[in-house]
Design a protein that fits this description.
This protein is of the alpha+beta class. The chain has three domains: 78 residues, 2-Layer Sandwich (Double Stranded RNA Binding Domain), CATH 3.30.160.390; 102 residues, DNA polymerase, domain 1, CATH 1.10.150.130; 173 residues, Intergrase catalytic core (hpI Integrase, Chain A). The chain contains 18 helices and seven strands. α7 crosses α9. Keywords: DNA integration, DNA recombination, DNA-binding. InterPro entries: DNA_brk_join_enz, Integrase-like_cat_sf, Integrase_catalytic, Integrase_DNA-bd_sf, Integrase_DNA_bind_dom, Integrase_recombinase_N, Phage_int_M, Phage_Integrase.
Length: 397
Amino acid sequence: MRALNRLSAIAVKKLAPGKYADGGGLWLLRRDDGGGQWFLRYTIHGRRREMGLGSIMEVSLKEARDGADKWRAVARAGKDPIKVRDKEKREAARNLHLLVDIAKDAFESRKAELKGDGKAGRWFTPLELHVLPKLGKVPVGEIDQRDIRDTLAPIWHSKADTARKAMNRLSICLKHAAALGLEVDLQATDKARALLGKQRHKAENIPAMPWSHLPAFYATLKDDNITHLALRLLILTGVRSAPIRHIHEDQIEGDVWTIPAEAMKGRRDATTEFRVPLSAEALAVIEKAQEFQRDGYLFANPKKGVISDMAMSQHMKRAGLEYRPHGFRSSLRDWLAEATDARHEVAETILGHTIGSSVERAYRRTDFLDQRRDLLERWASHVTSHVGKNYRARVRL
């Protein structure tokens, strides 16, 4: 029996799930899902270790054998292949000296902790639009406060929030570079802020339609198209636009919509799902939206993905309104305060806000679902008071 090269390229593609030895410590793990992983078993300093060599989708049998040969030689020299490879990665990382490379590397390392891998929140956008065009090709160690000041000065007051985000992202990039072992000025962003001065721009609240005007507006959303349906559901639930746009039929059970934790912006308890009670009107809207669903997404874009973030805003602009979709959350909150006796914690929970300290939340075992259901049913009655009974029948999925 051969000690090495026991497998063949054809056999690798046809093997059933399990572990298979190619010889010399090289193994193939085939998974139930059809994928597979190469790994090398070796013993160093009396300790048995396993080193991943890549998936069979990316690494061929020949490449796996070449890699095994390389790392077996390292082990014979008395060095731990895993530690040697990690050192090589660190040394390669130190060569990522341009800001554009550092920024991309910093973004990649943070994707897992960002909502939607950082795409929904556009983490990289402020850097991409306002920093990298001027400083991207500059070695990160050479960037100082004057460079940052000159880069962000054009938007420091006119686009204050964007400039603030760009400055914060740049600070993260400098810290990332320092963690890679590069010499950078970690105080460069603070010094740049001092040079730029206090921002004059005042944050403006998103225009919100008075809750008394909502029935008349809701009555105009009479077309059963995606934009009208999405706006209706946004108004009826008080949920932010992103979860609305990404609502999936698997998230709905009976008259409860469960939004995944990672989709809930602004919640400190980011591991907790959020349940939204659905009024009869909301369920009827969802039933209509199912006619447009694709891959389970109710508000699918006709071309690709889901309805865009701008679709609902553009509809309101075309209607000549100063209000924006996000403002309907304020409309609902004002209605709760002025037209109901809803307790503060119940009203805030309807909007998905985190209430109280971590200790208070630990002892609170309710999300006020039944109370919220009653209030949202009353809210639906208010906003549909000019509509008639077109969508009043309770429908369960």
